[in-house]
Design goal:
- It is a single chain.
- The chain has 16 helices and two strands.
- With 393 residues, the protein is mainly alpha-helical.
- The protein has two domains: 272 residues, no CATH class; 74 residues, no CATH class.
- It has a two-stranded parallel sheet with strand order 1-2.
- The radius of gyration is 21 Å and the shape is globular.
Length: 393
């Protein structure tokens, strides 16, 4: 089954794609919205390693399956041309750099009793990140739905309605709604390309869519960590934004592993480190049960999304050529990108707190628009320095 997903010889090697995700995991700031935007820019627009269709299929599957969005898309991209070994290497390369960083920060946190300097850094970084992810969301919108032109928008009116619904519902609920994505996909399929078994009711469908206490730990606590974070990875859909309320309910309210202040610091660590926002689980695991806790928490969170992705990818790729399935994917994609924009709005409302942060965000957007060769890590670094200067002067 796995071989059926693999296309003709790709324009890149397994080493190339692994190195790319290692680099993205090391320098990819901005959370899921920015990360999926970077993948589109680098792998579809710039290098042409993936087609637009392959990217959209991966984005749709990543949103349908539970777990962190950006990590799932990375795993799927690795699977497209290099199967199980590609999925494994890209997944590990993407997650490993940020995992190492949060473990080191966890050690520093325990040594010094807090991260006051991080608040100043995040003051600037958080604002710059909003500008970066806003640009990524705009590019995804134009590329996957249509340009902001009356004629183009009119021709894709239904997709724009799905897109707006994704924005509104995400802003109101502060989470991505899987039922909305499925409903948009099914409705668009029924309108644009109803499957044969619907056009001919007598024929039944052939199948169903499936859709510095480094080593200090307690074995019972490790088991609790493993089971809790498996549930977090298996039952929470969408971005890091969606998983934070779930983590708060368990880590603070149910088990009492961290207090409110420690949990906020954990989220701050995830936001100022590159890679997937969900890597905050490694920081939390370290504070609760040292390095073993960090490893168990990270593995338990990312393993479900890895298994879901490699299990569904072969069938998903095969049926994606069907016109009805393409319409289904288009409908889901519109709602997914709307949800990503909704996430930008929510994060923006929390990060843009005054005039200096608003100016930093605007400056980041302007820099990305007019300085073509400027890389995001430089913007993040400059914003961090500005944040520290503002808070200390």
């Amino acid at each position: 089954m796995e071989d059926k997903i693999l296309n003709q010889k790709p324009a890149y090697s397994l080493l190339d794609i692994t190195k790319y995700f290692l680099k993205l995991g090391t320098w990819g700031f901005g959370g899921p919205v920015a990360l999926v935007g970077y993948m589109h820019r680098d792998l579809v627009e710039n290098s042409g390693w993936l087609t637009e269709e392959e990217y959209k299929e991966g984005l749709a599957l990543a949103q349908l399956a539970p777990g962190p969005l950006a990590a799932q898309l990375g795993i799927y991209i690795g699977f497209v041309h290099y199967g199980l070994i590609g999925a494994t290497l890209t997944g590990l390369a993407f997650v490993l750099p940020s995992f190492i960083m949060v473990v080191l920060l966890g050690m520093a946190y325990q040594l010094y009793g807090g991260l006051p300097w991080m608040q100043a850094v995040f003051y600037g970084v958080g604002a710059a990140v909003i500008g970066i992810i806003a640009m990524s969301a705009y590019k995804l919108t134009v590329k996957s739905i249509s340009k902001f032109e009356p004629a183009a928008m009119k021709s894709k009116l239904l997709l724009w309605l799905f897109y707006i619904a994704g924005i509104v519902i995400t802003v109101i609920t502060e989470r991505e709604e899987i039922l909305l994505f499925l409903a948009c996909g099914i409705l668009y399929m029924l309108i644009k390309a109803p499957p044969q078994w619907i056009r001919k009711p007598a024929v039944l469908p052939a199948g169903i869519l499936i859709s510095t206490s480094f080593w200090k730990y307690d074995s019972n606590t490790l088991q609790q960590i493993g089971w809790f974070f498996v549930k977090a990875g298996a039952f929470v859909f969408g971005s890091g934004l969606a998983i934070v309320p779930f983590l708060h309910g368990g880590v603070v309210k149910e088990f009492g592993w961290l207090n409110e202040h420690q949990f906020v610091d954990a989220v701050a660590v995830a936001m100022i480190t590159p890679g997937p926002v969900v890597i905050t689980v490694g920081f939390i695991g370290y504070l609760v049960a040292g390095f073993p806790g960090a490893c168990v928490a990270a593995l338990a969170t990312f393993l479900p999304c890895y298994l879901f992705t490699v299990a569904l990818a072969p069938s998903f790729k095969k049926i994606a050529k069907n016109t009805s399935i393409k319409a289904f994917v288009d409908g889901i994609t519109a709602a997914v990108i709307g949800a990503l924009v909704g996430s930008v709005i929510i994060i923006g409302l929390r990060s843009i707190t005054d005039i200096p942060t608003a100016l930093i965000a605007i400056a980041a957007v302007v820099a990305l628009l007019y300085i073509k060769k400027l890389q995001e890590p430089y913007i993040i670094g400059i914003a961090a320095v500005i944040g520290v200067l503002i808070k200390t002067l």
